[in-house]
Amino acid sequence: MQMEVRNLLKKQFSKSQKKYIKKKIYPLQFFFGFRDLNKLAEVYETDKFGIHFYTQHYQTHFAPSKNKKIKLLEIGVGGYDNPDRGGNSLRMWKNFFKKGQIFSIDIFDKTKLEEDRIKIFQGSQVDKEFLEKVTDEIGEINIIIDDGSHINEHVIESFNFLFPKLKSGGFYVIENVQTSYWAEYGGDNLETNNKTTIMGYFKSLLDGLNNAEFRIPKYEKSYFDENILSMHFYHNLIFVYKK
Questions:
Q1: Predicted pLDDT at 10
Q2: Which residues have a Cβ under 8 Å from the Cβ of 31 and sit 6 or more positions away?
Q3: Which of 9, 86, 216, 224 could be stapled to 78 by a disulfide with Cβ–Cβ 3.0 to 4.6 Å?
């Protein structure tokens, strides 16, 4: 049936008309309770599906929380320096989390893209004073997604500051992990355990999950030893669960 409808659309409507239908009519199915992140990503034209294939993993991890009153912070709005572009994934999250509050930060002024349940702050993901003000205003955060600069140093620094702000039982997600191997982003393609890279750094935290079995006299647990419940690695994507 779905295929028949698509074929009919191809024959009867122009490209611009089909685009209008996709943006205005398709979202109705989500209003009535059907929330598939792959489909939502297509409707809102976010690269989290298609260019990347993140939404299938988000669906798995976030589905149990979709009807909860969560607070989600995404680093990066999108659209670069154009104040009228971006916010696609924010609108997707707003639709998926019907009771959620969606927040974002961006180095550029994106406040024109704000709407009900979406608030945007302007500032750098490595400006600790700015991040402190943002997290103080938001309060306890359930989900943090880093889709910001993708610069290795920035990603690690943001995680070290923001993970402690995450609510117990929350998720911290890092996208575009491929920059771990790209020199122009501070990556290292030769020494893959280099702790200054995203992958190298997060791999270094894995052993801490088993710190109770360390046979190291007077071993002092790190904050991450005590607060990371689990870590999940996918293609260019990392999920970190907080205890």
A1: 55
A2: none
A3: 86
Give the residue among 243, 234, 242 at the shortest CA–CA distance from 59: 234
User: 174, 234 in Cβ contact below 8 A?
Assistant: no
Catalytic positions are 150
| Composition of the chain by helix, strand, coil, percent to 5 | 45, 20, 35
Per the structure block, which two tokens stand in for 209?
């999950």
What strand order describes the sheet that includes 101-106? 118-122, 101-106, 71-75, 141-146, 166-175, 237-242, 228-234
Residue 3: predicted pLDDT? 46
Go through the domains of the chain in sequence order and give each one's CATH number.
53-242 (3.40.50.150)
Q: Which amino acid is at 71?
A: K
Q: What is the pLDDT of residues 136-159, one digit of tens each?
A: 999 999 999 999 999 999 999 999
State the virtual CA torsion across 221, 222, 228, 230 in degrees, nearest 10. Answer: -70
What pTM does this model have? 0.88
- Other CB atoms closer than 10 Å to residue 99's CB: what's the count? 11
